[in-house]
Amino acid sequence: ISEYKDANDSALSELMDETIPINWTITTFETTLKMSTYITAFVVCKFDYVSTIERGNQIRIWARKDAIKKGFANYALNITGPMFSFMEDLLNISYPLSKTDLIAIPLMNDGAMENWGLMTFYEASLLNDPEDKSISSKMQTCRVIAHEVAHQWFGNLVTMDWWNDVWLNEGFATYFELLGLYYIEHFIPLDKFFSKELTLPMLANDDRGLDQSISNTETRKKDSIKILFNIATYHKGAIIIRMLSNIMTEELFLKAMNSYLSAFSFSNAVQDDLWNHIQKVIDEQNDFQLPTSVKIIMDSWTFQKGFPLLTVDFSTGRISQEPIVAEKGEPNSRTWIIPISWIRNGTLQPLVWLDKRSKIFPEMKISDSEQDWIALNVNMTAYCRIIYDENSWRRLAKVLEDDPKAIPSVNRLHLMADAFHLSWRKETEYESILYLTKYLEKEDDLAVWNMALDALGISTTDVLLKDLELFPVLKQYLLPRITPIYHHYANLLRESPEALNMDESNKCEMDRILTTACWFGLRDCLDLASEFFNKWMNNSKHEVPVCFSSALCCYGVWMGNEEEWEFLWKIFQKNDTKDAHHIFYGLSCTRIPRLLQRYLHDIHNDETNPPSDTAQALLFVVQNEIGYWTAWTFVTENWSDLPLRSITESLMIPVTTDIHMQMIQAFLNNTLEPEEKNITTDIMLRDKSYNEKRKKSMTKMIMWFKENMDK
């Protein structure tokens, strides 16, 4: 490879270069190793770099000269070498190149690309401001680098034979991405991180019928190939790899990976090649046996869409499976071969296999004692949901009340998630969720608490929940339960906000706990918001704890007067803060109608704001319990300038009565063109029906709360 360039520019490609100095420079690179053409890259730039050497591998991070000078590439430089060494040690296969460049490109469509010897990154994915002390930015950079480094083995050293097996690249890169992240920044248990980041979002995706198989039939069409780069390829691929590693043990899994990569280095492989090398390693040991071949087990996961729903009856020990979403016109005939890990009364039991539609496991038949209980799928290693029999739901709820730690936190998360989704699908009784909430006063895990709030449908922006009948009972039931975890984090905030060094998801979860406590009117929470807001007002350079920014902005304004609102408005106008969204939302939390009017008009009349900002501001104001009529007046005065669909949807958020709907309908009938009326009518009927059903559901929940308040 040779590149012609200006003598003042830098030229980069796969390997080391040899430059011939003339007016135009010809940069000739060493001949590459045998490689795929799609991972070839060329760069000509006026960038600078920082460099290091790791085990003989020269590593350079390239970026704009001012970014290099300010140290924005230092974090990437510090972790890239150790990440390569981590992968070499895990797989016991050395990285074959003598140099590796990582370059930050200001404008790039993809987040990153694993080109061999010259990895390209969207600038924001690779660079970090040394002044930013939060872990979230570093975490994002670490994940992206870990993913691309993993590709040097899975994708570059061994490449899938064709794109229908692209999961052999992307699934493995995603799996080792999380292992690499944990190796560098081990701030959260790996099982919980897998569950939160991959398994639960993927289950929710498949729940909605958006499922796709991991491996696909061969296609040569460009558009069809693009579709193969989807969430199933990345996330579900990593999930089943984790499942396989847990079945085999990590030691045997890594031994199989070494065998597979060694056999197909500098060449192509198909899915069956992987299964053959895993089978070979399993056949060489006697510690465990599979119910059938690796290929038959794993093909049931890679070629089928969706996932299995397990129905459990521990009175008999029977477990049955069916697909969570039946394909159109297809009987529920699909089955998976499912490894089932389980605990009984807090003790881990030997793995069992569900290798048919329904099977009785005599060892899982429970006694009449309430102290005898079973929980399946330890640490969510199998990709499935579980419907327990009603007696088991109650027993698990009782275990949680007596000792939450008897069930691992990942399984508590799993229980909440399954109860929520399955009751929503009417696969299990709604009361099952509610019994699982009785213990929450003892729950100290942020992720589990947030899943519980999701399960209950608790959102602080949900104006339906502020209904005079619903809210007092909701508050009476949940406030005593959320108060302990609130006080734990509120005390930490008061003592040392800097010590709360969390990843982004944990910050959001903590912010939600604080916001919910303030929403319920917990006096200490409202005082905390005022306290931090006043510190901020007295020194605008005061660092706002990211884990408290939403609650702080909203309830600092809610508790304050015009002075607090004006302070936040001035900060918002600077438009140079990473907390812009929280500030934008916080401005809508005021209890002063005149300021809500000004908020809407100023956002709308500022020509530098996109139309979507007006729609978002209107939505925020509608969600303020005193803001609906302010929003209504604004809409009637500015209708011709507003986006029809989003405005109609915002106005319909709290509508449950015919009178309210008739008022909106009358206005729209007098305002809209004939062709527009059909759009709004459909939206209104849909949203009113949803709100009515939601209110009935909430009323049912409130009745249960009243009956179980002090039990």
From TrEMBL:
Q: Where is the ERAP1-like C-terminal domain?
A: 373-645
Q: Which residues form the active site?
A: 148 (proton acceptor)
Bilayer topology annotation: Single-pass type II membrane protein
Residues where Zn(2+) binds: 147, 151, 170
Q: Which SUPFAM superfamilies match?
A: Metalloproteases ('zincins'), catalytic domain
Q: What InterPro entries does the entry give? A: Aminopeptidase_N-like_N_sf (IPR042097), ERAP1-like_C_dom (IPR024571), M1_APN-typ (IPR034016), Peptidase_M1 (IPR001930), Peptidase_M1_aminopeptidases (IPR050344), Peptidase_M1_dom (IPR014782), Peptidase_M4/M1_CTD_sf (IPR027268)
User: Where are the residues marked Transition state stabilizer as a site?
Assistant: 234
Keyword Iron belongs to the record: no
A GO cellular component entry from the record: membrane
Annotated TM spans = none
Tell me the protein's name: Aminopeptidase
Q: Which organism is it from?
A: Micrurus corallinus (Brazilian coral snake)
